[in-house]
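User:
Can I borrow your eye for a moment on a structure tokenisation matter? Would you put together a sequence-and-structure record for a protein of your own picking? Please set it down just below, with no commentary around it:
AI:
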Amino acid sequence: MIRLKNDKEIEGIRKSCRLLADMFKVVIPEVKEGISTKRIDDLCKHFILDNGGKPAWYQENFPGAACVSVNEEVIHGVPSHKKIVRDGDIVSIDVGINLNGFISDSSHTVMVGNVRPQVKKLVEVTRECLAAGIAACIAGNRIHDISKAVYDIAQRHGYGVVYEYCGHGVGLDVHEDPNIPNVPGGGANPRIQPGMVLAIEPMINLGTADVILDEKTGWTVATADGLPSAHEEHTVAVFSDHTEILSDLGL
């Protein structure tokens, strides 16, 4: 069931998203060569707790406040003291905040040091995919219009588009209806309505679209061919005459 939010609920989600954006503005500059993914997670956790929020992933039983995915890891990277960021890596940080019962969700891929040109292009195109998906997210369109906007840009560059995981409704819970795939096709295709709050999140791979789940962690999803993946995500709210990026960093 799709839960349409009223103005009061959207304002609560907006405040949560603003806190999340502020967190990213503090954490992203700290993502440098030599930092561990556990240290990145700690920075996110302490910022959230110090500002009156709760890490939303804890309620999903994820072992961290942040999913920190490096290079070929697509999503749900489990933070570790042993995983050290190296020059040329890309690091995707996916965080949700529960602020007074209102949930925000956003992800950004950080390029560290001397990133190879083809990988830098992957990250830039993934950001273009997110922007295109948001542009298609307007009242009266359908969910698969978002999917097509994301997919068409990625396909134009020959990238693999992850199909096994997708965006989703958000705001009063971590994962709500509807699902928002990045590949158009089968499945539910509801019309986009005012009051929807959605997490749009392209996951774009340099090579194959296929992914594998790490059985050791039970969480981390990586590309099947070991090539890099980028992940960008914003929480947006749909109104009758516009769509607002609630988690915009304002940079």
Q: What stands out?
A: The first strand starts at residue 54 and ends at 55. The chain has four helices and 15 strands. Residues 27 and 131 are 22 Å apart (CA to CA).
